[in-house]
Amino acid sequence: MIKTRLAYLLVSSLFFISFTNAADQKANVEAFFTQMNKEVDFEKEIGHANDKDQAKVLGWLSCVYGAFVLILLFIPNSMSARWALFGCGGFMMSVGLALLAYSRKSVSEAPIPIAEIELD
Question: What sections of the protein cross the membrane (predicted)?
Answer without folding.
Answer: 57-76, 83-102
